[in-house]
Amino acid sequence: MRSTTPLTVLILALLLPPGSTVAGEIYRHEDENGNVTYSDEPADDDSEAMELDPLPEVSLPDGTARERRDRSSESERDDGNDGQQGYQSIEVTQPEHDSAFWRGDGLVVVRFQSQPSLRSGHHYALELDGERTRQSRSTSFTLENMNRGTHEVVIHVVNANGETVSSSDVTRFTLHRPSQLN
After folding, report:
1. Do 49 and 93 belong to one domain?
2. In 3D, which of 124, 66, 87, 83 has the Cα closest to residue 133?
3. What is the pLDDT of residues 23-53, one digit of tens each?
4. Rounded CA gap, 7 and 52, in Å?
5. Which of 75, 108, 116, 146 is most buried as measured by Cβ atoms within 10 A of its Cβ?
């Protein structure tokens, strides 16, 4: 009889469609010493077939349906006359929208870009989870000791009068961190 090689297992795994499940039975066996084992094959006639609930399915949000957060009024947008107010785009480049990542220390760097570059008298404002928290002329914000969970960021361009000129789309990300209880 020929043994199964890791390459064969890899090829079979790649041929299965993602998320496919293989139906089978799980058997519970208790030996004479009281040790319980579980297997996909019965150990002997005393093994019991188990009835298990189906595994839950998890789906990620659709990344194509991003919310638009342009809070500019028509008067604040570039109408082509003065060329001073409007920005063609503001895009968060890091973290990626709907991304999830591990960071034990809770450090998250938000990077972004605007077209055109920031104008004189304007600055960027970071909105984190619905609250404006920081302002800068730099194209990144470093967030330290962030709580684990899902967060949303929006970058705003603010003029010298404190008015929002343009805003990025909402960027949602999930930060995984070890529990502080463990």
Report:
1. no
2. 124
3. 567 888 888 888 888 787 887 877 788 777 7
4. 31
5. 108
